[in-house]
Protein backbone atom coordinates (compact mmCIF):
# COMPACT_ATOMS: atom_id res chain seq x y z
CA UNK A 1 0.00 0.00 0.00
CA UNK A 2 1.11 3.54 -0.66
CA UNK A 3 1.48 6.21 2.01
CA UNK A 4 -2.04 7.38 1.21
CA UNK A 5 -3.41 3.92 2.02
CA UNK A 6 -4.36 3.16 -1.58
CA UNK A 7 -3.73 0.14 -3.73
CA UNK A 8 -0.33 0.01 -5.44
CA UNK A 9 0.05 0.68 -9.15
CA UNK A 10 -0.99 -2.32 -11.21
CA UNK A 11 -3.27 -3.79 -8.55
CA UNK A 12 -6.64 -4.99 -9.80
CA UNK A 13 -8.49 -3.34 -6.93
CA UNK A 14 -8.18 0.45 -6.73
CA UNK A 15 -10.22 1.08 -3.57
CA UNK A 16 -9.22 1.20 0.10
CA UNK A 17 -11.36 0.03 3.03
CA UNK A 18 -13.63 3.12 3.20
CA UNK A 19 -15.20 5.07 0.32
CA UNK A 20 -17.28 8.24 0.65
CA UNK A 21 -20.67 7.86 -1.04
CA UNK A 22 -21.47 10.55 -3.63
CA UNK A 23 -18.63 12.68 -2.31
CA UNK A 24 -19.62 13.28 1.31
CA UNK A 25 -22.69 11.16 1.89
CA UNK A 26 -25.57 13.37 2.98
CA UNK A 27 -23.48 16.20 4.47
CA UNK A 28 -23.21 18.21 1.24
CA UNK A 29 -25.05 18.29 -2.09
CA UNK A 30 -24.32 14.89 -3.60
CA UNK A 31 -22.21 14.46 -6.72
CA UNK A 32 -20.73 17.97 -6.57
CA UNK A 33 -17.18 19.15 -6.12
CA UNK A 34 -18.32 20.74 -2.85
CA UNK A 35 -19.19 17.25 -1.62
CA UNK A 36 -15.80 15.85 -2.67
CA UNK A 37 -14.03 18.68 -0.86
CA UNK A 38 -16.06 18.08 2.29
CA UNK A 39 -15.43 14.35 2.18
CA UNK A 40 -11.73 15.05 1.80
CA UNK A 41 -11.85 17.32 4.86
CA UNK A 42 -12.85 14.26 6.91
CA UNK A 43 -9.78 12.42 5.65
CA UNK A 44 -11.40 10.42 2.83
CA UNK A 45 -9.18 9.66 -0.13
CA UNK A 46 -11.60 7.48 -2.10
CA UNK A 47 -14.99 8.47 -3.42
CA UNK A 48 -18.04 7.12 -5.24
CA UNK A 49 -20.13 9.15 -7.67
CA UNK A 50 -22.69 8.73 -10.47
CA UNK A 51 -22.13 9.71 -14.10
CA UNK A 52 -24.49 9.98 -17.06
CA UNK A 53 -24.52 11.73 -20.45
CA UNK A 54 -25.97 15.04 -21.55
CA UNK A 55 -27.91 15.16 -24.82
CA UNK A 56 -24.70 16.17 -26.59
CA UNK A 57 -22.63 13.39 -25.04
CA UNK A 58 -20.84 15.14 -22.17
CA UNK A 59 -20.31 12.88 -19.11
CA UNK A 60 -21.45 14.71 -15.96
CA UNK A 61 -22.38 13.83 -12.40
CA UNK A 62 -26.01 13.16 -11.40
CA UNK A 63 -27.72 10.25 -9.71
CA UNK A 64 -31.34 10.55 -10.80
CA UNK A 65 -32.79 10.28 -14.29
CA UNK A 66 -34.64 13.54 -13.65
CA UNK A 67 -33.36 16.86 -12.36
CA UNK A 68 -35.97 17.92 -9.81
CA UNK A 69 -34.64 16.31 -6.61
CA UNK A 70 -31.14 17.78 -6.62
CA UNK A 71 -31.25 20.81 -8.96
CA UNK A 72 -33.52 23.69 -9.89
CA UNK A 73 -34.13 22.06 -13.28
CA UNK A 74 -37.00 19.86 -14.43
CA UNK A 75 -37.42 16.87 -16.69
CA UNK A 76 -34.95 14.24 -17.88
CA UNK A 77 -31.37 15.34 -17.56
CA UNK A 78 -30.32 13.35 -20.61
CA UNK A 79 -32.56 15.44 -22.87
CA UNK A 80 -30.62 18.66 -22.21
CA UNK A 81 -27.32 19.76 -23.71
CA UNK A 82 -24.43 20.41 -21.36
CA UNK A 83 -24.65 24.18 -21.98
CA UNK A 84 -28.10 24.11 -20.35
CA UNK A 85 -27.23 21.63 -17.59
CA UNK A 86 -24.12 23.59 -16.60
CA UNK A 87 -26.24 26.61 -15.62
CA UNK A 88 -28.41 24.71 -13.12
CA UNK A 89 -28.10 25.14 -9.35
CA UNK A 90 -27.26 21.75 -7.81
CA UNK A 91 -26.58 23.06 -4.30
CA UNK A 92 -29.48 25.14 -2.95
CA UNK A 93 -31.68 22.10 -2.30
CA UNK A 94 -29.18 21.01 0.34
CA UNK A 95 -28.53 24.36 2.03
CA UNK A 96 -28.18 28.07 1.37
CA UNK A 97 -24.41 27.85 1.82
CA UNK A 98 -24.26 25.73 -1.34
CA UNK A 99 -26.39 28.00 -3.52
CA UNK A 100 -25.14 28.08 -7.08
CA UNK A 101 -23.04 24.91 -6.81
CA UNK A 102 -23.07 23.37 -10.31
CA UNK A 103 -23.13 19.79 -11.45
CA UNK A 104 -19.55 18.97 -12.47
CA UNK A 105 -18.37 17.28 -15.61
CA UNK A 106 -16.45 14.05 -15.27
CA UNK A 107 -13.44 15.96 -16.59
CA UNK A 108 -13.64 18.45 -13.68
CA UNK A 109 -13.92 15.62 -11.16
CA UNK A 110 -10.98 13.78 -12.69
CA UNK A 111 -8.84 16.91 -12.51
CA UNK A 112 -9.68 17.39 -8.82
CA UNK A 113 -9.10 13.76 -7.89
CA UNK A 114 -5.86 13.38 -9.81
CA UNK A 115 -4.45 16.63 -8.44
CA UNK A 116 -5.02 15.33 -4.91
CA UNK A 117 -4.07 11.69 -5.42
CA UNK A 118 -7.62 10.46 -4.69
CA UNK A 119 -9.30 7.41 -6.23
CA UNK A 120 -12.78 6.78 -7.55
CA UNK A 121 -15.59 4.26 -7.85
CA UNK A 122 -17.35 5.68 -10.90
CA UNK A 123 -20.90 4.40 -11.20
CA UNK A 124 -22.20 4.46 -14.77
CA UNK A 125 -25.80 5.64 -14.31
CA UNK A 126 -27.35 5.76 -17.79
CA UNK A 127 -30.54 7.48 -18.74
CA UNK A 128 -32.92 4.59 -19.58
CA UNK A 129 -32.38 3.55 -23.18
CA UNK A 130 -28.78 4.84 -23.25
CA UNK A 131 -27.11 1.97 -21.41
CA UNK A 132 -24.71 0.94 -24.16
CA UNK A 133 -23.81 4.44 -25.32
CA UNK A 134 -23.21 5.64 -21.77
CA UNK A 135 -20.99 2.69 -20.93
CA UNK A 136 -18.93 3.22 -24.06
CA UNK A 137 -18.56 7.00 -23.78
CA UNK A 138 -17.84 7.02 -20.06
CA UNK A 139 -15.24 4.27 -20.34
CA UNK A 140 -13.43 6.04 -23.16
CA UNK A 141 -13.55 9.34 -21.29
CA UNK A 142 -12.28 7.76 -18.08
CA UNK A 143 -9.44 6.03 -19.91
CA UNK A 144 -8.35 9.36 -21.40
CA UNK A 145 -8.82 11.43 -18.23
CA UNK A 146 -6.88 8.95 -16.08
CA UNK A 147 -4.24 8.11 -18.69
CA UNK A 148 -0.97 7.41 -16.91
CA UNK A 149 -2.56 7.41 -13.45
CA UNK A 150 -1.06 4.97 -10.94
CA UNK A 151 -4.55 4.03 -9.75
CA UNK A 152 -7.33 3.97 -12.37
CA UNK A 153 -11.00 4.50 -11.56
CA UNK A 154 -13.20 1.49 -10.95
CA UNK A 155 -16.13 1.45 -13.38
CA UNK A 156 -19.28 0.09 -11.73
CA UNK A 157 -22.91 -0.16 -12.79
CA UNK A 158 -26.19 -1.89 -12.08
CA UNK A 159 -26.56 -2.28 -15.86
CA UNK A 160 -24.69 -5.25 -17.39
CA UNK A 161 -25.13 -3.67 -20.84
CA UNK A 162 -23.19 -0.61 -19.70
CA UNK A 163 -20.40 -2.72 -18.24
CA UNK A 164 -20.16 -4.83 -21.40
CA UNK A 165 -19.88 -1.66 -23.50
CA UNK A 166 -17.25 -0.32 -21.08
CA UNK A 167 -15.32 -3.58 -21.32
CA UNK A 168 -15.19 -3.29 -25.12
CA UNK A 169 -14.29 0.42 -25.07
CA UNK A 170 -11.62 0.38 -22.33
CA UNK A 171 -10.79 -3.19 -21.33
CA UNK A 172 -7.84 -2.03 -19.22
CA UNK A 173 -10.09 -0.32 -16.65
CA UNK A 174 -11.36 -2.47 -13.74
CA UNK A 175 -15.11 -3.12 -13.57
CA UNK A 176 -17.65 -4.15 -10.93
CA UNK A 177 -21.31 -5.15 -11.11
CA UNK A 178 -23.65 -3.46 -8.64
CA UNK A 179 -26.36 -5.62 -7.11
CA UNK A 180 -29.25 -4.37 -5.02
CA UNK A 181 -30.86 -7.82 -5.11
CA UNK A 182 -29.76 -11.22 -6.35
CA UNK A 183 -31.92 -11.24 -9.46
CA UNK A 184 -32.21 -14.37 -11.56
CA UNK A 185 -29.02 -15.05 -13.47
CA UNK A 186 -27.06 -12.11 -12.06
CA UNK A 187 -24.04 -14.12 -10.96
CA UNK A 188 -23.92 -15.99 -14.26
CA UNK A 189 -23.98 -12.69 -16.14
CA UNK A 190 -21.33 -11.28 -13.80
CA UNK A 191 -19.06 -14.20 -14.66
CA UNK A 192 -19.16 -13.16 -18.34
CA UNK A 193 -18.22 -9.53 -17.73
CA UNK A 194 -14.57 -10.05 -16.74
CA UNK A 195 -15.13 -8.25 -13.44
CA UNK A 196 -12.73 -7.55 -10.62
CA UNK A 197 -15.57 -7.22 -8.07
CA UNK A 198 -19.21 -7.22 -7.16
CA UNK A 199 -20.61 -4.33 -5.12
CA UNK A 200 -23.80 -5.19 -3.25
CA UNK A 201 -26.38 -3.73 -0.96
CA UNK A 202 -24.93 -4.59 2.43
CA UNK A 203 -28.16 -6.39 3.39
CA UNK A 204 -27.70 -9.14 0.80
CA UNK A 205 -24.04 -9.88 1.50
CA UNK A 206 -23.73 -13.12 3.45
CA UNK A 207 -21.27 -15.97 3.83
CA UNK A 208 -22.54 -17.81 0.73
CA UNK A 209 -22.24 -14.76 -1.52
CA UNK A 210 -18.86 -13.79 -0.10
CA UNK A 211 -17.61 -17.33 -0.69
CA UNK A 212 -18.98 -17.38 -4.25
CA UNK A 213 -17.13 -14.13 -4.95
CA UNK A 214 -13.93 -15.56 -3.49
CA UNK A 215 -14.15 -18.66 -5.68
CA UNK A 216 -14.75 -16.48 -8.75
CA UNK A 217 -11.75 -14.33 -7.88
CA UNK A 218 -13.85 -11.21 -7.31
CA UNK A 219 -13.28 -8.60 -4.64
CA UNK A 220 -16.34 -7.52 -2.65
CA UNK A 221 -17.66 -4.11 -1.63
CA UNK A 222 -20.93 -3.07 0.02
CA UNK A 223 -23.11 0.04 0.14
CA UNK A 224 -24.40 2.03 1.99
CA UNK A 225 -22.76 1.07 5.29
CA UNK A 226 -23.72 3.63 7.91
CA UNK A 227 -23.89 1.61 11.14
CA UNK A 228 -20.96 0.11 13.09
CA UNK A 229 -22.71 -3.24 13.53
CA UNK A 230 -23.08 -3.59 9.77
CA UNK A 231 -19.44 -2.67 9.23
CA UNK A 232 -18.33 -5.26 11.78
CA UNK A 233 -20.44 -8.01 10.19
CA UNK A 234 -19.10 -7.24 6.73
CA UNK A 235 -15.50 -7.14 7.93
CA UNK A 236 -16.01 -10.57 9.46
CA UNK A 237 -17.18 -11.83 6.05
CA UNK A 238 -13.99 -10.51 4.46
CA UNK A 239 -15.60 -7.67 2.47
CA UNK A 240 -12.77 -5.46 1.18
CA UNK A 241 -14.49 -2.07 0.79
CA UNK A 242 -17.34 -0.28 2.57
CA UNK A 243 -19.13 2.66 0.93
CA UNK A 244 -20.65 5.05 3.45
CA UNK A 245 -22.70 8.20 3.90
CA UNK A 246 -21.35 8.54 7.45
CA UNK A 247 -18.09 10.27 6.58
CA UNK A 248 -18.25 12.19 9.85
CA UNK A 249 -18.52 8.99 11.94
CA UNK A 250 -16.22 6.45 10.28
CA UNK A 251 -12.51 7.20 10.17
CA UNK A 252 -11.36 6.30 6.65
CA UNK A 253 -8.11 4.87 7.92
CA UNK A 254 -9.83 2.38 10.23
CA UNK A 255 -9.60 -1.33 9.46
Structure description:
29% of the residues lie in helices and 17% in strands. It is of the alpha/beta class and 255 residues long. The protein has a single domain (18-65, 104-244), classed as TIM Barrel, CATH 3.20.20.190. Strands 1-9-8-7-6-5-4-2-3 form a nine-stranded mixed sheet. Helix 4 packs across helix 5. The protein is globular. The model is unreliable at 1-10 (pLDDT under 50).
Give a quick rundown of the structure:
The chain has a single domain (18-65, 104-244), classed as TIM Barrel. Helices cover 29% and strands 17% of the residues. With 255 residues, it is α/β, with parallel strands linked by helices.
Could you outline the blueprint of secondary structure elements for this entry?
Layout lengths: L17 E3 L12 H9 L4 E8 L5 E3 L20 H4 L20 H11 L2 E6 L6 H15 L8 E4 L2 H10 L5 E5 L6 H6 L5 E5 L5 H10 L2 E5 L4 H10 L3 E4 L11
Parallel strand pairs: 1-9, 2-4, 4-5, 5-6, 6-7, 7-8, 8-9
Antiparallel strand pairs: 2-3
Amino acid sequence: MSAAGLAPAGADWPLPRWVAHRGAGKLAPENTLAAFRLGASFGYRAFECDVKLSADGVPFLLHDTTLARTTDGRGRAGRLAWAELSRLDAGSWHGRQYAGEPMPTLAAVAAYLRANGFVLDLEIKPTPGQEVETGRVVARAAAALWAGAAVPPLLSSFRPESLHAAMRAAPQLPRALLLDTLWDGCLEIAARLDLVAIITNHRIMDHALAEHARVQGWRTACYTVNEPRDAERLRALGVQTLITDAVDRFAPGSG
